[in-house]
Amino acid sequence: MxxxxxxxxxxxxxxxxxxxxxxxxxxxxxxxxxxxMSGTTNALVEISDYxxxxxxxxxxxxxxxxxxxxxxxxxxxxxxxxxxxKALKEIKACFNYIRSFAREPFTQxxxxxxxxxxxxxxxxxxxxxxxxxxxxxxxxxxxxxxxTGENGEPDFNYITMHLGSLLxxxxxxxxxxxxxxxxxNSVGEIDNLERGGSDYTASIIGAAIDADEVQIWTDIDxxxxxxxxxxxxxxxxxxxxxxxxxxxxxFGAKILHPTCVLPAKVNxxxxxxxxxxxxxxxxxxxxxxxxxxxxxxxxxxxxxxxxKIKSSRMLMAYGFLSKVFETFERYKxxxxxxxxxxxxxxxxxxxxxxxxxxxxxxxKFGTVTVDRDMVIxxxxxxxxxxxxxxxxxxLEALRxxxxxxxxxxxxxxxxxxxxxxxxxxxxxxxxxxCLFKNKK
Length: 440
Ligand code: ADP
Ligand code: ASP
Ligand code: MG
Prior knowledge:
single chain; alpha/beta; Carbamate kinase; 2 domains; eight-stranded mixed sheet; six-stranded antiparallel sheet; 16 strands; 40% helix; binds adenosine-5'-diphosphate; binds aspartic acid; binds magnesium ion
């Protein structure tokens, strides 16, 4: 059995939903994971924002606008009147439920319930469509099996057991359809796996059922060798090792949610990135093959903050670095890049949260400076250090760009450069020209 996940743009209109139905119809008894239609989760966040602010007119106008988009979609989605009526009933019930929160007080738990409705509506509409086409499509409610534990991580025992019993119960089904993104937390409240988290749902399910493959269907033909939003003429990468994919996803390749790689890697399940609009394209396969030494792709992560702690007296004394890192640990703030020298240490974080407190504490150990609006550009591939030349090629490409920090050797798979935000597009394009286009 395979897990096929379709993102927001893949189910973004009646035409797209019908296309996905045709795609999955011919691919056997699999589990289909769906995101909300594109724009929906953003609209639900906006509705919640109005509700927090007690602006019920703003909330209701946004609800009405979103509802009319769904009603229009349903009007052209089905061939039969009965299907249309059934879908209308389910979707209207969802919107009336959302409207019922337009009162005080509005809590975070209620916001999570509202955010869950997008994926719930996608699954309702798709299941009815597949049934109309003669398939016994079984909706699997994610809220009945997808759960996180106290640490916020997926509770794999619970998920495996509950998903397993649903699959047993509906063993006659031709195909299963389930919601991405949504789950319950450790106390059973409705929660989610964070924005873009449907990819994570797919790999968690893949791990729980030991799937043959996890497929992430989106609007592009696989992981490209550079960010197609900023660089023209990028090409899909045929194959990536799990670690390479994890580095690219973490450092900004939006096609894949960073959390998605781990469950697949641990269970050695191949992940394939495919294009809904071009299903015959090879896409990208992510597996445990290391492959030939080469640079495969580049990605960039925005909103990075660099912190420098300068202290000639302290650095060489043992215990200095551990005190610095303990500070970050106390504030549950992950550090991405690190560079040390005789007189100081520089590191980066990707969140302003607790920055003031962290800087305040670090001042005990040295002189602290902070640079905001930085970007990490990450060059990824099989870059094992005994293969010469890769770091030179990357540095040569960036010769005209001011580089604030470099990190190399943390793994065999990445070289990272910290640069200013305003240099990002130039850096990505320079890397593309030097690393990929000149080699064509
Ligand atoms: P979905 O809604 O299907 O989850 P996303 O918008 O999350 O889709 O991810 C697909 C988008 O990721 C693409 O449209 C593309 O613009 C962007 N993207 C960023 N970096 C890359 C990359 N290296 N390769 C492919 N796509 C990328
Ligand atoms: N619908 C959610 C979002 O927009 C989850 C996802 O699409 O993966 O973030
Ligand atoms: Mg996505």
